Amino acid sequence: GAYDNVAFHRVIDGFMAQTGDVKHGNMEADFNIRMAGTGGSDLPDLPAEFSRLPHDRGTLGAARSQNPNSANSQFFINFKDNHFLNGQYTVYGRVIDGMEHVDAITRGEPPAKPDRMISVKVASDA
């Protein structure tokens, strides 16, 4: 439930939609769009671990600052193939159904009226 009601705070047309700021991005809590994107979770940042999976349309990548060891709770969904990110950001998921909903996310940096993740469930094939 940490991602429930978290805003898409940075959405660039033809590139990606970023979300996952569980500290400042919850639109049901004390929400300020200017703060969304500046926080993470209470867990430690992750060390760089770049996957070999390509940044294809619909893949989820770990968002981070310029520091490669700064990935935390934020992530982005690629609107198109963004292979220039390969080897620099980790791909760890893929939209398997409903990409039309991702394509409809309101654009902006930040969006004037951001969309949010209503309810998030993580599944694995482990």
Architecture overview:
This protein has 126 residues and is mainly beta. It is built from 1 helix and 7 strands. The strands form 2 sheets. The chain has a 5-stranded antiparallel β-sheet with strand order 2-3-5-4-6, with no helix packed on it. A hairpin with a 3-residue loop joins β2 (10-12) and β3 (16-19).
Short description:
By secondary structure, this protein is mainly β. It has one helix at 99-103; strands at residues 6-7, 10-12, 16-19, 59-62, 75-78, 91-94, 116-117.
Could you outline the blueprint of secondary structure elements for this entry?
Layout lengths: L5 E2 L2 E3 L3 E4 L39 E4 L12 E4 L12 E4 L4 H5 L12 E2 L9
Antiparallel strand pairs: 1-7, 2-3, 3-5, 4-5, 4-6
Report Rg: 14 Å
Number of domains: 1
Overall spatial form = globular
CATH topology: Cyclophilin
Query: What is the string of helix and strand elements?
Result: EEEEEEHE
How many helix segments? 1
Helicity level: under 10%
CATH class: Mainly Beta
Distance between the terminal alpha carbons, to the nearest Å? 20 Å
**CATH-scheme architecture:** Beta Barrel
Q: What is the average of the pLDDT values?
A: 94
Number of strands: 7
Largest sheet: 5 strands, antiparallel
CATH superfamily: Cyclophilin-like
Query: Which class do the helix and strand fractions yield?
Result: mainly beta
Strand order of the largest sheet: 2-3-5-4-6
